[in-house]
Amino acid sequence: MGRLTGRPAALIVDDSQFICRILAKSLLDYGFRLVALAASCEEALVQAAAFVPDLITLDLVLPDGHGFELYQKLRDVRPESRILIVSDIRQVENFDKAREIGAAGFLSKPFQESQLVQLLQNMDLEGK
């Protein structure tokens, strides 16, 4: 598995504590430092405004809104952050929309750590 030499920051936006734990462990193992977790759109905006995450993982279904709507708000707050969509909604339209809006990638739940690592390597966060 690849590993970052720097310590980029990550914000995980997901209302599932289980997914948050899996993502946090995988990102920490890869070399990230975890800035924050957010379980809602509102929390995500607060955390993104308070910190400067290099990477934001974003679930599409949140208790107070949809991830694609939140995506644009996060872009406005942190245009420099890379946003990775992580969702169990595997519709082709979601893949296409993620690509269309400029998401750094799309990871379908459930996922293998190796799939996440492959996406992270393709993002070249150290060259950011």
Please outline the major beta sheet: 5 strands, parallel
Bulk shape: globular
Strand order of the largest sheet: 2-1-3-6-7
Name the average pLDDT.
Answer: 89
**For the record, what CATH class applies?**
Alpha Beta
Task: Report the CATH topology name.
Answer: Rossmann fold
Could you say how many structural domains there are in total?
1
Q: Please work out how many helical segments DSSP would assign.
A: 5
Attribute tags:
about 130 residues; alpha/beta; Rossmann fold; five-stranded parallel sheet; two-stranded antiparallel sheet; 5 helices
Q: What would you note in describing this structure?
A:
A 5-stranded parallel beta sheet has the order 2-1-3-6-7, with helices on both faces. A two-stranded antiparallel ribbon has the order 4-5. It has 5 helices and 7 strands. Helix 2 (41-50) runs parallel beside helix 3 (67-77). The chain has one domain (9-123): Rossmann fold. With 128 residues, it is an alpha/beta fold.
Summary?
This protein has helices at residues 17-30, 41-50, 67-77, 92-101, 113-123, and strands spanning 9-13, 33-38, 55-58, 61-62, 65-66, 82-87, 105-108. It is α/β, with parallel strands linked by helices and 128 residues long. The protein has one domain (9-123): Response regulator (Rossmann fold), CATH 3.40.50.
